[in-house]
C-alpha cells in the first residue's frame, strides 16, 4: 500500500495531456462517480438540516465530520477496507453537508496549488467583505464568476494530479474524492 501522506506534486504533469491508460480512465470514473455520490449525500444532509432541523449541535456535527475524515485517513486503502472507507466517506459527506457548504473547501487534505488560485480566493474574500458594505450588484456578479473560474481551475488541477498519481500506481480513489 502507498503512504497516504505521500502527495508530492509534480507540476510538470499539470500540462501533460498525453494518452491516459485504461486503468487510469477506470480510476477517474471511480473518483468522479464517488464524488457525485458524495455531493448527493451532502445535499441530503443539508436538506434534512433545513427541513427538519434534526441536528442543532453544529460543533458536534463538525467534530464528527473531522473525526470521520481522520478515521478515513488512518484506514489504509485495500480491497478489504474499501466498503468501510466508502461508508466513512459517505458519513463525512453527510455531516459536511449538514455542517455548511464551505466546509469541503476548507478541509482539503493537501496543499493549495501555487499562488494564483490562493490569490484568487483571497481576492474573492476581500471583495465579499467590501460588498457587504457597498451592496454592489456588479461586484457580486464579478465575485460569482471569479469564484466559478477559480473552482473550475481547482478541479482541473486536481484532475491532473489524480491522473499523474494513478499513472504512478496510487489507485486510492476514495482519498482523491476527499481531496476534491
TrEMBL record:
Name it: BI1 inhibitor
User: GO molecular function of the protein, one example?
Assistant: enzyme binding
User: Where located?
Assistant: Membrane
Q: Which residue windows are transmembrane per the record?
A: 31-48, 54-74, 86-110, 116-135, 142-163
What protein family does this chain belong to? Answer: Belongs to the BI1 family.
Q: Which Pfam families match?
A: Bax1-I (PF01027)
Name one cellular component (GO) term. Answer: mitochondrial membrane
Does this UniProt record's set of keywords contain Transmembrane helix? yes
Q: Mainly resides where?
A: membrane
Per UniProt, the keywords (alphabetical) are:
Membrane, Transmembrane, Transmembrane helix
Q: Does the keyword Transmembrane helix apply?
A: yes
- The organism is Ibidorhyncha struthersii
> Could you name the domain of life of the organism this protein comes from?
Eukaryota
The membrane topology term of the UniProt record is: Multi-pass membrane protein
> Coiled coil where?
none
Biological process annotations from GO: cellular response to unfolded protein; negative regulation of apoptotic signaling pathway; negative regulation of RNA splicing
